Amino acid sequence: MLAILHRDEHLIAIDKPAGLLVHRSDIDRHETRFAVQLLRDQIGRRVQPVHRLDKGTSGVLLFAFEAEITRRLSEAFECNEVDKCYRAVVRGWPALEGRIDHPLTRDTDEPGGAIRTMTTQAAVTDYRRLATIELPHAVERYPSSRYALMELRPLTGRRHQLRRHMKHIAHPIIGDATHGKGVHNRFFQQAFDCHRLLLTCTRLRLSHPVTGLPLQIEAPLNDAFAGLMRRFGW
């Protein structure tokens, strides 16, 4: 059963588990479970996702029941009118706070063919360091290893933005097989039995698309993420 965080006559939000795709994708053709289908089966009603979370990312995932509400919410996300807050565990100790203003490239399909071009999009992320730990394990060339708990707030919505931005400042997110560091990912798997991407959306703030009233939806930390927090005293 998917944990429902909010529901009214227009919207429903769930706490998406790590490892679950939002919908069918060519990237993971072997997958047979999707958040859209699971939620439809659970509540007996069609739903439409209004934004995306990566397969490995957990947390608040918002759906609408009607096409017009989907359109309004999608526009709100595209216009950066939704405040998104994430938690992540990263390698090293970043600065206490800062802003990453680093454009990201994406592949674009050209009309009518297989030609692909690279386009560059502005991408901005604010971050804040919440906690740190230094472990007596020589994961790389140093006798100990440092990690930090981060609050990340993407001000734009680019593909893999948080993962790519943290890599850009040399503090990759633990568990990121694409943009992270394998030696640290393996250390967390072996030492802490943590096999997930340590990135989760903990809060969305937005204006309700029908009433206009402020709406805040929060997801608790759970599974391996919560266990790690307790173990590190965070």
Q: Can you tell me the overall shape? A: globular
Residues in helix, % = 10-25%
What Rg, in angstroms, do the CA atoms define? 18 Å
Q: Helix- and strand-based class?
A: alpha+beta
CATH homology superfamily: Pseudouridine synthase
Tell me the domain tally. Answer: 1
Compact summary:
The chain is built from five helices and twelve strands. The chain has helices at residues 35-43, 67-78, 161-168, 182-192, 223-232; strands at 3-7, 11-16, 48-49, 58-64, 83-91, 97-101, 104-109, 116-121, 124-135, 145-154, 199-207, 214-218.
What do these coordinates show?
The structure is a single chain. By secondary structure, this protein is α+β, with helices and mostly antiparallel strands. It has one domain (3-232): Pseudouridine synthase (2-Layer Sandwich), CATH 3.30.2350.10. It contains five helices and twelve strands. The protein has helices spanning 35-43, 67-78, 161-168, 182-192, 223-232, and strands spanning 3-7, 11-16, 48-49, 58-64, 83-91, 97-101, 104-109, 116-121, 124-135, 145-154, 199-207, 214-218. The strands form two sheets. Strands 1, 2, 3, 4, 5, 6, 9, 10, 11 and 12 form a ten-stranded mixed beta sheet that branches. A hairpin with a 3-residue loop joins strand 1 (3-7) and strand 2 (11-16). The longest helix is centred in the N-terminal third of the chain and has 12 residues, at 67-78. It is globular. The mean pLDDT is 92.
Sequence-ordered SSE layout with sheet pairings:
Blueprint: E1 3-7, E2 11-16, H1 35-43, E3 48-49, E4 58-64, H2 67-78, E5 83-91, E6 97-101, E7 104-109, E8 116-121, E9 124-135, E10 145-154, H3 161-168, H4 182-192, E11 199-207, E12 214-218, H5 223-232
Parallel strand pairs: 4-11
Antiparallel strand pairs: 1-2, 2-4, 3-4, 5-10, 5-11, 6-9, 7-8, 9-10, 11-12
